[in-house]
Design goal:
Chain lengths: 344, 207
Amino acid sequence: MMRVRLSNAELNDAASHYDGPYRPYDIIKEVCVATGVVTLIALLLTIFLSSPDLPPTTIQTWSRQMPADFVTTAVAELDGSSDTAGYGPPYNHASSGQHVFFIYLEKWLGVSHPVNSAYDFVIAPLRAIPDDPSLQAAVTHYVHAPATEQAAWTGAYSTALAKASSNPKGAVALPAGNYGPVAPMMSSLLALAQSGGLDGALLTSKQFYQTDYTKPLLFMEDGSALSNRATYQHLQGTQWGMMNETGSYPGQVWLWLYTFWYQVPPFTTSEADNADAFVMAVMGLLSAAFVLLPFLPGIRTIPRRIPVYKLIWRDWYATDGAASAPPPPAPKRAPRVAKLRQAS
Amino acid sequence: MSSWTGKVREFGLRNLPPERLFPDSQPAYMTSAIYLFGALTIGSLVVIIASGSILALKGPAWWHVQSIGHFFNSIHLWSVELFFFFMVIHLWGKFWMAAWRGGRARVWITGAVTFIIAIPCAFTGYVSQQNFDSQWIATQGKDGLNSLGVGAFFNPLNFGQMYSFHVLLFPVLVIGLVSLHILLVRRHGIVPPIPLADSVGPVTAKR
């Protein structure tokens, strides 16, 4: 028996017109009924499951619940060792950012949201505290000190934080040491944060209305408060976090393929430093293939090779569509060798 | 010489005569339940727009402080989940039908692009929630966007910008693409079945 595979052009031609029978259909009714069905399902899900709404983390709650972590993060912002301080574009020039081979899109598009972690997160908020001449003198002392001396103070302070204790009022007590002006600066910044003042200070711009949370979110991301909550809510990157939702609710499940790449090599190993850029590149290529699928040889023939279509159109093939079946195979001719034997 | 208006009317009537735009009959092969998922996707989009409009009219903080606001937020969330669920089934169905045949590549392309654009549309909604979820998604999502350089003009940490994208730009894009997709489906009609002659027997001989 011979199988006939139509060429792509023949399949296209066969699908460009239809001369067979029709059946009654009401497009408006179908859409209205579908909308009603979806409304009903959404209503039932709302009534029985509601939706999640965990309150946001604020710098105030973070600094009150985890004062040592807050101060540790603040010192890292001050001495330039935090993630934000070394991020690169679009926040600063500390690095060239991620790249794929020779393509440095992050670097090429530049610093669009400038963030100086030491100035924006520590010095500027402290400068805005009124009626505290000793604090202002400490800030001035720090700002005008040589870089080596600044590093010695912050280094000693960071080391001592490992032995720090928090008292019930939320203050951080360190053993005696040569911390220079860093100790009073951190003490004042912690007090400002615990009062709620730093939440507002990091939002401050030249406008009265504020909608840009870039600075407070970057600052909080450098600490452990957001991360700890995310771990508890199974939202970390290693927990397929981007597609999860707080609680047990479904999240952005359509991001499963995007999230998948973060779980496997080389994105977790040799390319971990540029994982975001490489994952985006892979997803870009896959998205282009998805859109252009009708033009991709091999991929576009999969539906013909795995005939799920026979299930979809089984009713049609059993009735009117039977005409599109091939003719039954012709009877086999007797083998030539047998005929020769008979003749002899 | 006909006017611009006349030319547009003639173009519309030539490509989409009323009986094709609003058909009261369809080819007899349209019997499978898989055909329902396109309409269910549209139905989900209607519920998303309706619930989202109410949330937008009351402002982004409303649903945190009023139970009726939380109710509409829940409707919005679940209709989005249903939208993607139905759309993915619809896409898989069209894939197995090889629904791009017969000059219908643009129908597939507009559907695929709609799916891709719907993802940032939902993403901007997630980062506009003003709760812990939006804080975490914004701080995690920014790295991928920044790695593309997109962060220079699309900053998930900027609530105002994300909210504008979510309630205006992306919905307009999604609605426009879905409308174009539907018009193209109406223009070309639903794809006929693959002829059974295409796959019979064990030996392959491409003609």
